[in-house]
Design brief:
Layout: E1 2-5, H1 14-27, E2 32-36, H2 42-49, E3 56-58, H3 62-65, E4 71-75, H4 82-89, E5 94-99, H5 103-118, E6 123-127, H6 135-147, H7 161-169, H8 187-206
Parallel strand pairs: 1-4, 1-5, 2-3, 2-4, 5-6
Helix pairs in contact: 1-2, 1-8
The chain binds adenosine-5'-triphosphate and magnesium ion.
């Protein structure tokens, strides 16, 4: 299974999503790896900080490194270059587009989905960094994306400081601890959210393409 996580916007949790989906599948016993396709090598840096238990390869060694993997996740860099995005998405079973509920993030997601539609690449949107006090914005973003005919994962990835803590120590969020080594109280909320997305991905990939991504790009954005 080949999954690409990409988007036009920076800082929308592409690397965080790649690391956590890989972590979920690893805990389920799957042979998973990440290909870091970002010039900043964020996923490689993340994994080298702690004890991420699956391999992360730079693009230069992807062909060799991914040979035995059942699931290959490519962590893309933020880019508005159409050719670059097409190359990233090409051959993927599913492209995941993380987006925050903010209007600009939603607009760029709709643009990218249109490009992927023209390439006939299956894609789905993941709404991330949802502040529990501002859930309404997330529901509005979701409604806007659905109006465009985009496939949107059920549920949101919550905005949690546990993700920052996990990144700082190079672990998955369920291992997030503070400076004093105390477990973050909301770490399992973040972990459960990614577990749910991982199970939806398996269903989505087995769904016929005709049932997904019938995007209607004439609708106005209301988020
Ligand atoms: N759900 C979340 N809640 C809070 N912080 C988060 C969440 N997801 C990611 N972050 C934090 O947001 C920052 C950006 O995340 P990340 O690096 O995954 O984004 P990105 O889209 O890969 O960025 P880039 O475009 O630079 O590659 C990181 O510090 C990460 O720890
Ligand atoms: Mg990144």
């Amino acid at each position: 299974m080949f999954i690409t996580v990409c988007g036009q916007k920076g800082g929308v949790a592409k690397t965080c999503t790649s690391i956590h989906l890989a972590s979920v599948w690893h805990t389920q016993g799957k042979k998973v790896c990440i290909v870091d396709a970002d010039k900043n090598r964020s996923a490689l840096a993340y994994s080298s900080r702690g004890n991420i238990p699956f391999p992360v390869f730079p693009v230069s060694s992807a062909a060799k490194g991914t040979r035995d993997a059942e699931i290959v996740i490519t962590d893309g860099q933020a880019s508005s270059d159409e050719e670059e995005l097409k190359h990233l998405a090409y051959g993927s079973d599913l492209v995941i587009i993380p987006t925050t509920p903010k209007a600009r993030s939603v607009e760029l997601t709709v643009e990218l989905a249109s490009l992927l539609n023209s390439q006939k690449v299956k894609h789905a949107v993941l709404i991330v960094k949802v502040d529990s006090r501002k859930q309404k914005a997330a529901f509005q973003a979701r409604a806007a994306l659905l109006k465009f005919g985009l496939e949107v994962f059920d549920g949101f990835i919550p905005l949690l400081s546990a993700f920052d803590k996990a990144e700082a120590s190079g672990n998955a969020v369920y291992e997030a601890v503070d400076d004093l080594g105390r477990s973050d109280p909301r770490r399992m909320t973040g972990w459960s959210a990614y577990c749910s997305i991982a199970s939806q991905i398996s269903c989505l990939i087995s769904k016929p393409s005709s049932d997904t991504n019938s995007s209607n790009n004439q609708m106005p954005i209301s988020a």
